[in-house]
EGF-like domain-containing protein (Volvox reticuliferus), 779 residues
Amino acid sequence: MAPSQAAKLLPMLLMAVVALPRGLAVFNSEELLPYVELDEAAEQLRRSLLQSSGGTVQSQSEAARAPAVPPLPQTPEEHCALTIGSWCGPYYRQTPTQRPPPKRGNTPCPNDCSGVGQCQYDFGICYCPAGYGGADCSQPRKRPCWRMDSNKRDLGWHNYTEWSHSRCAGICDDDIAMCYCPPETKYGRIEAPPGAPRGTPPVRAGRPLYWCQPSTDELGNKVMWGAVKYEDLFGRDGWCNADVPSFMCPCRIDGRIGSLCNIAVEMFCINQCSGRGDCDQGFCRCHAGWYGHDCSRRRAGLPTNTPPDYMGSKPWLEPAVTPPVAAEDPPRTKPQRVRPYIYVYDVKPDFSTDILQYRIERAHCNYRQFQHGNLTSWIGYNAYALESMLHETFLASEHRTFDPEEADYFYVPIMWACLFDVYGWNPLPRWPKEVHGPRPYGAAMMQLETVRWLNATFPWFARRGGRDHIWLTATDEGACCVFKDVWPGIFLSHWGRTEFPHTSGSQYHADNYGTGIYHRDHDGEWLDQTSRTHACFDPKKDLVVPAFKRTEHFRSSPYVGASPVERSIFLFFRGDLRLAPGQDPECKYSRCIRQTLYNRSRAENWREKYNVLLGDQATVQGDYSLLLSQSLFCLVAPGDGWSPRLEDSVLHGCIPVIIMDQVQVVFESILDMPSFSVRIAQKDMLNIISILKAISADQVQKMQDNLAKVWFRYRYLGVKMAIRDAEHVVTQHREKNGGFLRPNPGVQYAASPVDDAFSTLMQWLYARIPEIHGTEART
Ligand SMILES: *[C@@H]1O[C@H](CO)[C@@H](O)[C@H](O)[C@H]1NC(C)=O
Ligand SMILES: *[C@@H]1O[C@H](CO)[C@@H](O)[C@H](O)[C@H]1NC(C)=O
Ligand SMILES: *[C@@H]1O[C@H](CO)[C@@H](O)[C@H](O)[C@H]1NC(C)=O
Ligand SMILES: *[C@@H]1O[C@H](CO)[C@@H](O)[C@H](O)[C@H]1NC(C)=O
């Protein structure tokens, strides 16, 4: 994985951008593609696509000629192809029961959360936005810019010379540590007048001074922490003063776009507050009578028959909202339900919405964003996209319950990976406040504080010792360094490292969890409480889950209806190699696997001899999805920690060749991995060609057949945007193919959420209920 490195390079990249006369716009080109919206008939379309040959636009005779797409599975046995152990069947043998109407709370909050917070009526707890705290949100809870004075200005450009992201040469919004042009400039920020009610927006928001710090002062003296000429910011033609400035600062904060950063767009919130609230950079303020992190809950005593057009005045939210079916009162869409029942905590803002509000880039922590005209679009690539996506999937899931007493499991949606993105900007947030540890330390401490809060506030963490609590740790080294108090829970991560003892493999110091830190908040040395007490992954209780890849990412795969092409590339890998001089002197990245194989392939001319394509972006060019679809074997080697290469190969029908000693790949503990992949020990890696050549054509065919029986478990179709994306890709292939879907093996799942990654998780969790509860399942 390379996100950590990307984060390290980002500052340099952005500096380069700032230096351009007409700033920014270096987003990944993929991000600029508008998200193509399909109409409401999409669900119908999907059905017709998948029922044999897609009869809607075909004539009878065409339909008769079109070969039939294989059917979706019907029996538990059909669902459970290539699973190992006994986890898969029971879920499908359940008898559904009547879904009760959702519980509705009516416990009032102190002081009605002072008009700025959101009341959680189940418990009468205030959830406060950034800037406010205390039991009733009446206390200030600030995130000042670095070296900020009480007047929200810098303490002195020359008094302190050190640089920090959040050092502010204008005026600081100290709720979230964002910097703006000062009020005395034409496009400066003007705060709400003193004494205005809490939460009053500024009189003028002002242009942001984002990644825009001055290199000189007014008199031309050097400012040690800046890089932009004074005139370019504060001169007559500068960013803060001119209608059309000669220099543009970047505009990447959520909620505003355009080169002048003056066009208001919708901001990101988890499931966009279900269309029932106003979103403030990750914090949902629900419309009257609604509550919960996603505003899906209705306060007791209020009528439930809300108008169907609940998006109200914001029709643009529709593509981004996945209706939370479990919240319907009375239940309509899914009147019956099966277990597991999952309770999703509304996690305290400190560990959830604050982190989103502290985002400095709208593309962080996320998989989607709003563009011009509030058009919903995908974010090009975010390695940790699963965090927000999975949270939304749980909220929208029919397995969700609002009654913690009946819950089989609890999902704790802390912003673990998102914290990695915001950690470097400002000295806050930190746990403990005064310690600036590596990012895994910060995240692990935040998680520990979450458990302390859960345990002090609700009875359910202690009830089963936390064993029924589910956590996602999507970052490079997953759950390696979580505290032993949290470890009994179920960890979903992308990094299945099983060995113990273990040390951090990260080459990137900010992610290396090896540093010893003592603090009274965690009984001495943190490593003695964390990585020295457990492995990174325990296949008995944890699950390695796929990274999120939208269907467009594998659009050339035969599984989504592309025309199968000859797999003429014998072995394929494209990715980071860290070959630049000095980049990785000890060859720690990827455990030196990618680099060693790359060098050998060059030295022995594997490309010409065997048609092996192995290299980085510069040496292996072409369309990634197409290349994977043309490859027979695909290399799966680690990055700094995990790498999504297993997903890439499986989703394209390329046989994965795994070289990661003592690291399980996605679903290795629950699927018959050897039946569709090859594993090579690192010590044998230089024999990779002869090992692969020795596999018979028969065996290859078998593995390919088997890939078609599992590929769909490696993709997520739990949110509306992902489903529409899949439908769009499938529709394109269908149109190109004269109106019907090619009957490739596995194509019946092309746009179907049946047995996708989330369903797989549900099936696995269901089977584990007796063990987790220490009883037999009650159903
Ligand atoms: C910053 O330095 C100036 C000039 O040396 C001095 O007058 C001022 O008091 C200093 N301010 C702070 C906050 O230290
Ligand atoms: C986009 O959404 C924002 C925030 O809700 C709103 O202020 C703005 O008017 C919307 N823009 C358009 C073009 O609808
Ligand atoms: C949770 O609270 C119980 C009861 O106060 C305590 O015994 C237990 O140690 C706590 N667990 C954690 C992980 O803090
Ligand atoms: C790969 O080759 C480069 C360039 O010759 C060299 O600097 C590097 O050390 C080699 N790495 C490995 C792992 O062989």
Remarks:
- The first helix runs from residue 3 to 19.
